[in-house]
Amino acid sequence: MTPADLTDRIVRYGDLVPCRTAFIDAHTPGSDRKENFTIIGGGVSESPDQHVHIAEPHGFNIGAAGQPPHCRNSLHSHRTAEVFFVLSGRWRFFWGRWGDAGEVVLEEGDIINIPTGIFRGFENIGTDYGMIMAILGGDDAGGGVIWAPQVIEDAQAHGLVLGENGKLYDSKKGESLPDGVGPMPVLTNEALKDYPEMTPMQVVGYGVRRYLDMAALSQDTPVKVIGETGIIRDKPGFEVDLVTRSSASETMHSHDRASVLMPVKGHWRIRWEGGETTLAPGDTMSVPGGLDHSAVPSMTGEATLYHIVGTDDPAGPSWLS
Fold this sequence. Notes:
The chain is mainly β. It has two domains: 7-208, Jelly Rolls (Sandwich), CATH 2.60.120.10; 212-310, Sandwich (Jelly Rolls). It has helices spanning 149-156, 189-192, 200-207, 211-217; strands at 10-11, 35-40, 52-54, 60-67, 72-77, 82-88, 91-95, 102-106, 111-114, 120-124, 130-137, 146-147, 160-162, 168-170, 208-209, 223-227, 232-233, 238-244, 249-253, 259-265, 268-272, 275-279, 284-287, 293-297, 304-310. It has a seven-stranded mixed β-sheet. The protein has a seven-stranded mixed β-sheet with strand order 3-2-4-11-6-9-15. A hairpin with a 5-residue loop joins β13 (160-162) and β14. It starts with 9 loop residues before the first strand and ends in an 11-residue tail after the last strand. The model has no long low-confidence stretch (mean pLDDT 94).
């Protein structure tokens, strides 16, 4: 790859390849219409059908979930950070053993840093197909997904079994667990004690930031949304900044590792030595480490983008610990 050719590091929204069998709840009514996308990194999909757009390790994963109205993602947990921002639609995030410990509604551009170690789910409560973008800590994203026991039990009733090897087997396709592979164990009551019921104040007060508030803070310089000095103070193995029209700069700069640009509003012109491209909302671009580049709006009107770069912090339990 030459600096002028970064085509393979740009994933256009319209080119995203969905997987409709990514997780154990793919047949469960209410969750059976969702689409999952793995954009950067291996992701946490349990299906061999999942397409990976950019496999290169970045120290974190980028994915997305697309869902029609009233479709939900079942209760699960991760061992590393899980951060979402709303690209389109209106979304309800809920958490707790049964999903009733608390909830919050997020609009376009809003961001949530969900604590490790709690069960969480989300639902599109808008009127149209919606998309949320996800950042997961670590190259292996903590080794996969931990499901609330009822999710595994419900899935079995609809033909899907998760093996202890982390792979899905679909009885509707004539599949069964291979010899020597048992089903994924359901968490015991004793193990469930390690998954706390956090209050709305704990989750929303600390981990949620509203788009308009962040944009107002990003006047002269980008606002650090997540980081050791961020407005969400956390060190999950990556940092997230929000760049606006007023805080964007034509000045070329680089990072010592690959960084990711994800527009939320407007069109952005990305320049580097020997090349340039334009990104629109929903597009994702990985900029190689050490490459001088700049990002500025290419048209008038509202323009914001999220910028993600890895850090040397371990991608383990985040601010809950």
